[in-house]
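User: Predict the structure for this protein chain, please.
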Amino acid sequence: MQNNNNEKIYGTIAISNHHVHLTEEIFNELFDEVISIKKPLNQIGEFASFSTVTLKTAKGEIPNVRVIGPFRKYNQVEISATDAYLLGLTPPVRQSGDLEDSETITISTSKNTITLKNSCIIAERHVHMNNAKAMELGLKNEDLVKLKVENDKGGAMEAFVKVSDNGFFEIHIDYDDANCFLLKNGDEVLIEK
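Assistant: Here is the predicted structure, written as structure tokens:
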């Protein structure tokens, strides 16, 4: 992809580890603490909290899974395909918030254990941006773009455009994608329509 000056457009990689988004109601059922900021995220207003949960199934568990704030209107657990194998789950690959007929998963803290139905997905790769950046690049929400990796294990993958008011321009992939293409946080890839 090129901008108005015919320059190639590169985006910065941000690798997303497994994490959970919770409603305030479910958070309060799991914790006796107030949600607090451990580290602000690049997406404006979002943060990694100090709170963690354990993901549990009959086959396995993953401890220390970070709760991402602020609270949402729905509960969502995002894992990778590798995590899913460890847990014995087959979650669908979906965009955030598309939870119909997704996996059921149990989350646990020292206070409580809750089973959440239709809450677990493998997140689609996506490119965050705000409206101004989308206009500059001639893109709109849910457009599909190609990410071209130019390194020793180069290749291409597709990602959805995610336009929001607080969108910070970066590409979100999970650790499975990152490992496949030898990518790390801060690497840049070419974005093509």
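DSSP finds four helices and 14 strands in the chain.
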